[in-house]
Design goal:
The chain is α+β, with helices and mostly antiparallel strands. Helix content is about 35%, strand content about 15%. The strands form six sheets. The chain has a five-stranded antiparallel sheet with strand order 7-6-17-16-15, sandwiched between helices. It is globular and about 60 Å long.
Length: about 425
Amino acid sequence: MNHPQHTDRAHPSRAAGAAEPAAASRRRGGLLPRSRPARRTLIAAGTALAVLLGGSYAATSIMNIPSPLDLVRLQTTPPSGWGELFPARSIAKAGHTTALPTSLQAAPEHVPWKGKRITFKDFLSKTRTNAFLVLRDGKVTYEWYGDGFTADTRMPSWSVAKSVVSLLVGQAIERGKLRESDRLVDLLPELRSKGTYDTITVRNLLDMTSGIDVDENYSPWRPFTGTARMMLTRDLRTFVKDHRDLTYTPGSQASYRSVDTMMLGLILMRVEKKPLAELLSEGIWKPVGATHTATWNLDREDGVEKAFCGLNATARDFAKIGQLVLDKGSANGQQIIPEKWVIRLATPAPHRIDNWGYSAQWWRPSGGNGKDFSAIGIYGQYVYVAPDARTVIVKMSDHGTQQDEQETVDALRSIAQHND
């Protein structure tokens, strides 16, 4: 998630130039020659534009981020389309997939919303939902897709990827490749700083208590700093090496920072000697019987996975991740994730973030009965798990950057309890 205040993207418009009066624009059926001052103005404007564009291309090249035209394309593409705009590595499915059984039920007529009750249809519309799926007892009881989306559509999950990285960390710990007490710089020695940074542990990264100073910035108007810059960079390894300042002593408090998950991804790739996409395919995707090949966006062609986001898959396959966690790490007769790791991620860590519980890259939202938890991504992505209702809900959206998260969770809670 990119917790709690999201603002919708704004797109700048172009002002149209004024047309010349018809009487002044023609003479004897041909265009009038422009005056010298007008020609000088056009030449100056063209030169300024060329300098501006040249400078922009030079700047983006130096910063190792997409070109100005690519940045424009990003800003004018809805979040649900970003997965197709970056290089990606495939996450292979198994030869034998497992279809989700279906037992359809009607959706609730109304859900709570900001102190009122609105229709379920209005809820989907207000939060710009693209896909909505409910699993109860492992069966699909409700499934809906917006225009242009289907059960076969691969959609970006944004920070839901963080929660999936957590599952891979749990597997690595179970295999003895990693410990929560391990120091970051012992695993990635090229990051040693000879300062307090060197005390950061895997546990700090899991619970967002590292204190690494990379601002959680998503503003389209400030794309060159913080998380926005990390999202755009074509060299993630250099980015994290260049950002080793701290805002507080590791472990002393918690603050949501995507860079912490990026570090976990780099650690996994180092200790497992495999890219994240391969780890996910072999460790989770194939064992749960995912029905579609997924992708994980990279910083560049054949580069490094954006561990903090960039995982693209169908709603049904994300639902299988939720069901895996609901079933305490078990799927298709196998213990895929250690049960003790599911207990770890479902139990809030000591430090809260924005008044919500947080643990091992999973959220424990305020309110409710204190038993539910969720993977949450920017723009309204949810893999919500309600153990007491035996329910998993997947919601994929094009909502604001950090918007209506508590209200959305309250609605999901109500839906989970519907007809239970």
